[in-house]
Write a structure and sequence with these properties.
heterodimer; A: mainly beta; seven-stranded mixed beta sheet; B: six-stranded mixed beta sheet
């Protein structure tokens, strides 16, 4: 059974930093591209970032480019999101999501999601 | 980045058919995927690609696309289909993802 478990969400002040983690199990982690998606309270979904199976390719939404860094450790079946220069508008539930592709192919379809970790940016 | 526009809300009588649309320029280049989200739960993939359903998704869900518009159709809506639905695609550059604005489906 595929499982994605996010952690690391806390209350942080504007301008602060935070690292989110996502522990993956139930599939061959290093075969798949992974994504972060967020959802502000009461709002819609927003794609945040993608990392390819080997970490060689990364993409970011304009809203986080230059502030967030996605990474992965395939030896630990883990995905990360380093968040710097946090703003109040970054307050959201952050989901990690598995790409459906595999084998080096990025489908940009998200077939498994975690339950999310809540990041609150507030003074 | 591109935008994907959805109607904010639609309603459907139990057992009837409802179509949800998603419009955006990037849909001329990329297929959409569709996600169902119920309150307090993570989204669930219901349709991807041309018209593919993941395992476990009922066949009353189907997808289609024409020009800059993607559609999700629920044929014979059930009470458990009441949820928010989001489309998703790449943006026109192909290097960013974009979600639609979301449609709240109410089953009467």
């Amino acid at each position: 059974e595929v499982q994605l478990v996010e952690s690391g969400g806390v209350v942080v002040q504007p301008g602060g930093s935070l690292r989110l983690s996502c522990a993956a199990s139930g599939f061959t982690f290093d075969d798949y591209t992974m994504h972060w998606v967020r959802q502000a309270p009461g709002k819609g979904l927003e794609w945040v970032s993608l990392i390819s199976w080997d970490g060689g390719s990364t993409y970011y939404a304009d809203s986080v480019k230059g502030r967030f860094t996605i990474s992965r450790d395939n030896s630990k079946n883990s995905l990360y999101l380093q968040m710097n220069s946090l703003r109040t508008e970054d307050t959201a539930l952050y989901y990690c999501a598995k790409d459906k592709g595999g084998g080096g192919y990025d489908s940009w379809y998200f077939d498994y999601w975690g339950q999310g970790t809540l990041v609150t940016v507030s003074s | 980045s591109s935008e994907l526009t959805q109607d904010p809300a639609v309603s459907v009588a139990l057992g009837q058919t409802v179509r949800i649309t998603c419009q955006g320029d990037s849909l001329r280049s990329y297929y959409a995927s569709w996600y169902q989200q119920k309150p307090g739960q993570a989204p669930v993939l219901v349709i991807y690609g041309k018209n593919n359903r993941p395992s476990g998704i009922p066949d009353r869900f189907s997808g289609s696309s024409s020009g800059n518009t993607a559609s999700l159709t629920i044929t014979g809506a059930q009470a458990e289909d009441e949820a928010d639905y989001y489309c998703n695609s790449r943006d026109s550059s192909g290097n960013q993802g974009v979600f639609g604005t979301g449609t709240k489906v109410t089953v009467l």
